[in-house]
Each structure stands twice: as structure tokens, then as C-alpha cells.
């Protein structure tokens, strides 16, 4: 895998070199100015580049990745078997299927509602099946357009900001910290229980909110989410709620924004099978757009989102949707949740390890990530230190926003063997 990634990076460097030295023919088409505003190094390619350099320096080292949040456990047997059988049926006249509904398989949409939104007022016609949460995030940005103001948690997943920049919502870079001028950053730290002070938060059209949060692992409480919904109602804002890690909630924290009264009038929810069922490579997710969510002129947002889906998307893979349906069967869902429990046990090992070192640890109870504080240190310095001393890849908190400085995100997505080995190595840090 590392060798393949190195080849890709080498090829990219060659292309950039050729373009900047004039060895390529230039068109008369100007570069999209919004893409020019993006910060040079996206977080995860930067981590990969540093990992490759480390491997060159220590070719015999066994590097353990606790960085990129990619699942590692095999799919549940019933799920894999269902997809395999579906694929074989495609080779027969009776079993072949072509295009499906752009909005997704009706049975799958119904199963999502009945299994994951049971007791809530979500309807299957409000569920749009997709090829993953990150893809849906870009489609929602396309829906919202370039003339909206946005707010994001700080720290938060970099994709919210980058997609906003590409859409032209960001303005210019404000200062050396990397903040964009038109984006409102809602600080979420231990001092405010990882929930923004809404009394000091300026009104924006759109609020991106992730719970359980990536990277901090904090799941917003019912009271906190009620405050957020009330704030959106008062300000006439739309909440884009990322629930990709909802399956990891272990306490009474809501798993869906639609558990909160009034949320159907102000919130779109995006979620995924990736971290719940190990579908990071299969690619399957969904977005819920309630019928009550209206624009300023009273037009239903769901109609426009349906148009976006039908225009820019031909529907999720039939094979992936068959797998999703198997995930939500009684047997499949039990096995899916057993995988979630496996990763949660990994988290506990990591929490105990960092705590034993006297470090302050956050997250870990409602998410597959541990958010570790290294006070007075720069995140990239800590990244390099951990990598050099233990051959372990982590993620520097600064990559998730200015408030992430001094923190590290550590992923529990790994085999039990690798987590135990990483724990053993980490104990040598201090």
C-alpha cells in the first residue's frame, strides 16, 4: 500500500513540476480562483508523505497506523455473502439489474428508517441513499450554493471547510493561522465542554455540526443539541448534521438530530455505513432532508436536493445497496454492532494507555477516536516525536483547526494485535 501511494505522490510531483516549468501546453482557461484559495497541504496527504519518508529512513520498522480513520476488520459474513450472491446474479438474465432509483433502493430506504430512525418521524421518502457521507457533503454544498455564510466547529473535519472554499463561501485567508475570512469558527474545547458558546456566535446561514465529533470524540448532549436547534430556529439557519459516528454512542446522547424537537424544520442529516459497518471501501451512505425544511420563500429544500441527486448522481451501486440492506437485517445488524464493540474495546485500551502516562484524554466513550492533550507542544512536533520514537502514525490536532493545536487524534481502527503493540510502544514515550 505504501509503495502504491509513493508512486502516486511521485507522479503528482512530476505533473506539478512539468506544469510549473512550462513543459505542458497551457490553455487559455484560468484556474478556478476558489481552488487557488485552498491551503497547500491537505492533512492526510501530508501525513502520508511524512510516513513514506519515515519508512525510507527506517526500512525495517513495523509502522503502526493510528492515523487515518479507516476501518480494518473484515465485513460480517452475511453482508459479504449477500453482495457476492448479488454480483453473481448480475451474470444471469433473471438477476441482472441496471440503473436503480437515484434516491436509492426503496427497501433499503425503508430499512434505514425502521432500524436507525425507529420512533422518530423520518419518512423513507426523505432518505437519499448515496456513495458515502463525504460525497453527500459536496452535494449539500452544491445545493446551498456560493452565496451563503457558514459556521463550523473548531476543531472539526477539514472537509467542511475545504468544500466551502471550493464553493466560494469562504472569502480569503484571514491570517497565518489558516482561518478563512467568511467562515465563522465555533471554538469547542474542554473549557466549554466541546460545545460552542452560542450567545457569542454570530448568525450564519449554515451550521456544520458533527456529533460524535471528529476529531474530539465528544457526543453532544440532548440539552446541547436543543440549544443548537433553538439557535438555528431563531436565526433562520440550516444545520448540516454529520452523524457518521452515531453507532458508537454509548450513553444517553442523541444518535440523530431528529431526536430533538423542532429539528425537522432546520436540519439536514448526513450519515454513512463506513464506520458503522466497515464500508469505507464499499461506499454507501445516506442523507435525510425533512419535508418541513423550507427556504426563505417557503419552497421545500427536499425538492431541490432531489434535483441535485437526479442531476449529478446516478444512484449508489446496486451491489453496495444489497450489502447495506443485509447490514440492517436482524442477523446482519447484530454482527455490524459487534464490529463497533470491537473498536470500542480498542479505544478503551488506548485511553488507559495515555492516561497511564499522565496525559489528559478526551473522547473514547462515544467515538472510535481518542483526543490527547500535549500542553505547550506543537501538534506536528508531537506527531514527529511519536513517529520517531515508536513508529506509530497519529494525526496532529492542528489539522482540524486552530483550536486543535497541542492535541493529537489517535484512531482505534486497527486489529487488536496492532492496538496492543501500539499501547506497549506508547508507554515508552514518557
From TrEMBL:
<dbReference type="InterPro" id="IPR019942">
    <property type="entry name" value="DapL/ALD1"/>
</dbReference>
<keyword id="KW-0032">Aminotransferase</keyword>
<keyword id="KW-0808">Transferase</keyword>
<feature type="domain" description="Aminotransferase class I/classII large">
    <location>
        <begin position="62"/>
        <end position="425"/>
    </location>
</feature>
<dbReference type="InterPro" id="IPR004839">
    <property type="entry name" value="Aminotransferase_I/II_large"/>
</dbReference>
<dbReference type="GO" id="GO:0008483">
    <property type="term" value="F:transaminase activity"/>
</dbReference>
<dbReference type="InterPro" id="IPR015424">
    <property type="entry name" value="PyrdxlP-dep_Trfase"/>
</dbReference>
<comment type="similarity">
    <text>Belongs to the class-I pyridoxal-phosphate-dependent aminotransferase family. LL-diaminopimelate aminotransferase subfamily.</text>
</comment>
<dbReference type="Pfam" id="PF00155">
    <property type="entry name" value="Aminotran_1_2"/>
</dbReference>
<dbReference type="InterPro" id="IPR015421">
    <property type="entry name" value="PyrdxlP-dep_Trfase_major"/>
</dbReference>
<dbReference type="InterPro" id="IPR015422">
    <property type="entry name" value="PyrdxlP-dep_Trfase_small"/>
</dbReference>
<keyword id="KW-0663">Pyridoxal phosphate</keyword>
<protein>
    <recommendedName>
        <fullName>Aminotransferase class I/classII large domain-containing protein</fullName>
    </recommendedName>
</protein>
<dbReference type="GO" id="GO:0009862">
    <property type="term" value="P:systemic acquired resistance, salicylic acid mediated signaling pathway"/>
</dbReference>
<dbReference type="GO" id="GO:0030170">
    <property type="term" value="F:pyridoxal phosphate binding"/>
</dbReference>
